[in-house]
Amino acid sequence: MSEQKQLLIIDDDPDFAEGIKSILVKAKYKVDMAHNPKDGWAALEKNKYDLLLLDVMMGRGAEGIMIARKLGKDAKFRELPVLIITSIREQMAFLFPGGAVHPNFVDVDELIEKPVEPKLLLDKVSALIKSSEAKKKK
Amino acid sequence: MATTVTFSQEIGNLLHAAGGTPVSACMQCGTCSGTCPVGDFMDVRPQRLIRMIDAGFKDKVMATRAFWYCASCYQCTVRCPRGIDIAELMYGLKRYTIWKNQYPEDLIGPAFSETFVKNIVRTGRSYEPVLATSYFFTLGLKEMLSEAQNATMLMLKGRLPVLPARIKRLENFKRMIKRIIPIGD
Amino acid sequence: MTKKTFAYFPGCSLEKMAESYHLSTVEIARVMGMELKELEDWNCCGATAYFHVDELLAHTLCARNLAMAEKEGLDLVAPCSGCYKNMHACNAHLKKDHDLADHINFALEEDNLRYDGKIKVHHLIEVFSEDLKEVKAKATNPLTGLKVAPYYGCQILRPRKFEHENVEEPRYFEDLMTAIGATPVDFLLRLRCCGAALIITNRQAALSMVRNLLQNALDSGADVIATACPLCQVNLECYQDQVNAEFGTKYSVPVFYFTQLMGLSMGIPAKRLGIGTEFLSPPAAMLAACRKAAAV
């Protein structure tokens, strides 16, 4: 059996973060949580993660995107797969009715909208980790 | 499993970039409530609201309208002996309820903000007559008449714009906004 | 002495609703030998509404204006207290928070702009108050006998712009009024918010705030309230009828921009200062100055 994978969730909604954490823990992942972008970045600097689950709307606005861009610019983090979990469409529906959320300008690996279906979440997480490991072996 | 994050921390997370003191530093001196020019109209005054946040009364805080009465005059902020940025906290709470779509339905504030933002996203400038549509029909007959009177007077004095202004590089402007609020095409 | 030049950000209100503020600003700047270059293609500062919805977006809007001023190599001056507060705060955030600045510059790229935090943001009243000697010298038609309630309002002073800023006992508005020959009265509520941000959303509260200010201005013996913000002007003047209807009062207190008063004191004809577009007529001492200005 391969070693336990370590994931980080950055999401300002504690209930939601707890919810996906429990799904992931049941599937034998080791999961850390941060509830604001600042703590999230500190955790990334401190520990090594196999995957980041990232919320979009936090603090002042779409700060999740700020983090994703910063990761992409940093050689240290460029390999880290990022799964964006968002409900921005719901939150900002009055501004952009209908438009699906996608930050085309950041190199995000996957994006799922809240509420999250547990099976879909687990599938995406394991697929992302696998493909990132395959890339590393090359 | 119960969450380990308190409501007070949740609010702290929302304001992580503001750099003020956390609400837990509040010593309940009441300067904010005493100094607030809108205090008489709030269902819960700032001092009490801060205590409610600190005590973790999330549902009660979300049900108040106090922060939608905040005029953003920062009198509380400059006078707080503990350095809590109270006006910024009020902004944070407004954002929080808008994002979560949790605010009393009869409030005009959220709808007004939405109309304002929509309008600027479209043209780059504010245009008063469009804003009026967000609240005009929420008014009682008396207010509606006096508001219409005011508009007529402004018109007569040449103080209402006939056409909405817009910026020249509007396409660039719209793309710029899309980089901040990421939406697909 | 070199001519002072600023990038001028009129803001949405000054386009029509407060055009008289714009006109009078341009006139007195000319007399004072100050150049105000209107920022080309400026956009709305976001007012308070944007901060309710998304602060990053609000900062982006302000940053676009700052970047255009920086491109001109000029400090920015704003006549509206709301615009001033937003852009001043945004400027401070961008200078302090490099991640924020980087992210916002990424958005600004779409408009071929970039902001490096090189400029300062001033309120219009600040730039005139700094040169009281010059103001006094130009005030050839002093507003003798005019009792003015100098109304600061909220956002010029608050939040604090630097650590020990005197936000409780400012004097510059009074000094400016003295310099143009008027008499500033002791206006107790001069720093108290007028509630302009609430006039639409929480009408009762706003009208009551306006009433308190009007009553206090009368109690202090003022003939006129002077403001340095288009939102305060509209709120205090245009809603007086509604205040009267609500509270059974009979207020009729004229409210003018400080720039209009300065302009009159400099002998500029009333019309060029936008006088005539107000709801409530100027008091006698102002009318006398208007006649003198017209005669010049």
Overview of this protein structure:
The complex is a heterotrimer of chains A (138), B (185) and C (296). Chain A has one domain (6-137): Rossmann fold, CATH 3.40.50. Chain A has a 5-stranded parallel beta sheet, with helices on both faces. Chain A is of the alpha/beta class. In chain A, 42% of the residues lie in helices and 17% in strands. Chain B is mainly α and 185 residues long. Chain B has 2 domains: 7-99, Alpha-helical ferredoxin (Fumarate Reductase Iron-sulfur Protein, Chain B, domain 2, Orthogonal Bundle); 109-180, no CATH class. Chain B is 51% helix and 0% strand. The mean pLDDT of chain B is 87. Chain C is of the alpha/beta class and 296 residues long. Chain C has helices spanning 19-31, 49-53, 55-72, 81-96, 98-108, 124-129, 132-138, 172-179, 203-219, 230-238, 240-247, 258-265, 284-295; strands at 4-8, 34-38, 76-78, 121-123, 147-151, 183-184, 224-227, 255-257. The longest helix of chain C has 18 residues, at 55-72. Chain C starts with a strand and ends with a helix. The model of chain C has no long low-confidence stretch (mean pLDDT 95).
Total count of strands of chain A = 5
- From the 3D structure, determine the CATH topology of chain A: Rossmann fold
Level-1 CATH class name of the largest domain in chain B: Mainly Alpha
**Oligomer description:** heterotrimer
The largest sheet of chain A, given as strand count, sense and whether it forms a barrel, is: 5 strands, parallel
The shape of chain B, in one word, is globular
CATH level 1 name of chain A: Alpha Beta
Helical residue percent band of chain A: 40-55%
CATH domain topology of the largest domain in chain B: Fumarate Reductase Iron-sulfur Protein, Chain B, domain 2
